[in-house]
Specification:
Number of helices: 6
Distance between the termini: 49 Å
Largest sheet: none
Structural class: mainly alpha
Helix content: over 70%
Shape: globular
Order of helices and strands: HHHHHH
Strand content: under 5%
Length: 135
């Protein structure tokens, strides 16, 4: 009988765990840079996307700059990681160009993923800010 050797591999994370971990890290970085403004923007972003659409909101965030730019970078980076075939870059111009060319089903999937990640970000940002705002 062969003895099993303990492995040091991390257990594989579920997609929800990956979203939560990424949102946790982004919330920490965002709060460190922009304090409570990042939390407030994270809370309002899903409604903005719901009302205006993902591409319009990404353009708006890029135009506003500052803390909005930080939040947009975090969202673009996550979406790029989740959809590397459809979104080959997290850089704003390349991201927007790719988003304009994706199939409607892919656009819906990307938007749904944005909402899923933002649900985690809203919660993580509020929780981290509630802990004294320390990242």
């Amino acid at each position: 009988m062969a003895a099993t050797t303990p492995t040091k591999e991390k257990p594989r994370q579920t997609l929800e765990q990956q979203r939560a971990q990424d949102a946790w890290e982004c919330a920490g970085a965002g709060i460190a840079q922009h304090y409570k403004d990042y939390v407030n923007d994270a809370k309002g972003l899903p409604a903005l996307i719901m009302n205006s659409g993902l591409m319009q909101v990404m353009a708006y965030l890029e135009d506003k700059g500052g803390r909005h730019h930080t939040l947009a970078q975090h969202l673009r980076r996550w979406l790029h990681q989740r959809f590397p075939q459809q979104l080959p870059s997290a850089d704003f111009p390349a991201f927007m160009q790719a988003l304009m060319k994706v199939a409607p089903g892919d656009y819906q999937a990307i938007t749904a993923e944005a909402f899923a990640w933002l649900r985690w970000l809203r919660q993580m940002a509020a929780a981290r800010n509630g802990a004294g705002g320390k990242p």
